[in-house]
């Protein structure tokens, strides 16, 4: 499905969520994959494709596609306390058997499921680079090409984030053998980045950024070199996900991870700090002032027992955020947004925590903020507007949980009651990729995935 943007055409919706809110009778003109016109209060014209409810596609700002293949395989209790660190050992064992073809098939299923749930662009935080022995492939971007092929085959937009990973702990500690498939020096990473950019150029609107894996995996000097290589592209980094990570950073440097990063790098609006779960109020204030995006992954953070992001301090400081599917244990855009709000309700023992002000819709404010923050983090413009990619999600107005709703109540009912079951169709660059709630190539993608996993598990 590389770039199958159809000829110029128009979609007519009885209601559509535009940047200013829900509008009635919206006619959207599309050509070359882009929105060319938006007319409100317009009657449908002959030849228009007519639908009921439209929302913009949501960016998924953080994904490790290969982990879709191990979803559900880490839910057996170990002999001691299970944590992120015990889960990571299982992930290392799984990653040993993933080859380029297996990665492509696993990623394709993940990306199809993202489109079915309303995600239309993915930020692929990609650190699986080398062969199972840890040796570089002849093409340093062999595994990146598998990711590009999966994006092309499903139609999802791609922000590719090749990951720099050189060390196994703070201060340049040696990496373990289990990390051998991830590792580069700066020169090797520069070659990977060049090859990845060439591979991504095959897609119509791909973006390529850089991703220092974490402060555990990169030294200060290496971080500075990566930022030079990335230029103005997006910069993503895992940070402050675990209490142990914070404690280890304090022991190494005397500073907490976010505190150390702000003191040693010019963090700005290009940056996405993934998780940032364990921040002080002072760190939240300082980080929010940079314009960076917090990349939040509520399903994965709950699954791994990470903790709950300090949203009250972040919102008070004007912080921006988006959501991602991370480990892909469950891929569901509405579930990520719902649990972002519900986590805050549980932590604060109060309701409607992410509404921006009294008398505001929680669902609408949550959706709008995640749309804007996710688009910023992935280096694109979000929302339904002229000149933007025609990435549109259509809801079934006959879904029982949407009956009688209008305005922000539609968004609230979609996120908190109906969920992904209300999604009928999805267009990516104007091409229909989901119909009747299923990806148009779902059957073939599933069969390919099953073959790949049977071979990998053998």
TrEMBL record:
One of its GO terms (cellular component) is cytosol. GO terms for molecular function: deaminase activity; metal ion binding. Residues 54-431 form the Amidohydrolase-related domain. It comes from the Bacteria. Residues 11-52 form the Formimidoylglutamate deiminase N-terminal domain. Gene3D superfamilies: Metal-dependent hydrolases, Urease, subunit C, domain 1. Its cofactor is Zn(2+). Keywords: Hydrolase, Metal-binding, Zinc. Pfam families: Amidohydro_1, HutF_N. The keyword Iron-sulfur does not apply. PANTHER family: AMIDOHYDROLASE-RELATED DOMAIN-CONTAINING PROTEIN, GUANINE DEAMINASE. This is Formiminoglutamate deiminase. It comes from Sphingopyxis indica.
């Amino acid at each position: 499905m590389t770039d199958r943007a159809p000829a110029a055409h128009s979609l007519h919706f009885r209601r559509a969520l535009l940047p200013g809110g829900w509008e009635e009778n919206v006619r959207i003109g599309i050509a070359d994959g882009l929105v060319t016109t938006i007319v409100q209060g317009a009657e449908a014209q002959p030849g228009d494709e007519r639908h009921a409810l439209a929302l913009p596609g949501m960016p998924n700002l953080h994904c490790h596609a290969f982990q879709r293949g191990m979803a559900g395989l880490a839910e057996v209790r170990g002999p001691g306390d299970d944590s992120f660190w015990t889960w990571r050992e299982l992930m290392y064992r799984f990653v040993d058997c993933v080859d380029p073809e297996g990665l492509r098939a696993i990623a394709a299923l993940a990306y199809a499921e993202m489109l079915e749930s309303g995600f239309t662009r993915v930020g692929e935080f990609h650190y699986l680079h080398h062969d199972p022995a840890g040796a570089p492939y002849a093409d340093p971007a062999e595994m990146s090409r598998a990711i590009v092929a999966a994006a092309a085959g499903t139609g999802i937009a791609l922000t590719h984030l090749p990951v720099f990973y050189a060390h196994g702990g703070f201060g340049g500690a040696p990496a373990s053998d289990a990390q051998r498939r991830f590792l580069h020096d700066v020169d090797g990473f520069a070659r990977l980045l060049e090859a990845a950019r060439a591979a991504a150029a095959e897609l119509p609107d791909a973006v390529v950024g850089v991703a220092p894996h974490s402060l555990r995996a990169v030294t200060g000097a290496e971080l500075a070199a990566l930022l030079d290589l990335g230029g103005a592209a997006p910069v993503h980094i895992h940070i402050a996900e675990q209490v142990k990570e914070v404690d280890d950073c304090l022991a190494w440097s005397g500073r907490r991870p976010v505190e150390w990063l702000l003191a040693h790098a010019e963090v700005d609006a290009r940056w996405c700090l993934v998780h940032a779960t364990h921040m002080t109020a002072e760190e939240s204030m300082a980080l929010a002032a940079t314009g960076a995006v917090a990349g939040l992954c509520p399903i994965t953070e709950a699954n791994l027992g990470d903790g709950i992001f300090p949203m009250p301090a972040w919102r008070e400081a004007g912080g921006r955020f988006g959501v991602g599917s991370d480990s892909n244990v469950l891929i569901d855009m509405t579930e990520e947004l719902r649990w972002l709000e519900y986590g805050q309700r549980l932590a604060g023992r109060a309701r409607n925590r992410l509404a921006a002000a009294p008398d505001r819709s929680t669902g609408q404010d949550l959706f709008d903020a995640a749309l804007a923050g996710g688009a910023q983090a992935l280096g694109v413009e979000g929302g339904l507007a002229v000149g933007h990619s025609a990435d549109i999600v259509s809801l079934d107005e006959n879904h029982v949980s949407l009956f009688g709703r209008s305005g922000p109540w539609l968004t609230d009912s979609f996120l908190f009651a109906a969920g992904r079951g209300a999604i009928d169709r999805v267009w990516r660059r104007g091409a229909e990729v989901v119909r009747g709630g299923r990806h148009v190539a779902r059957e073939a993608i599933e069969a390919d995935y099953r073959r790949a996993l049977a071979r990998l598990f053998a």
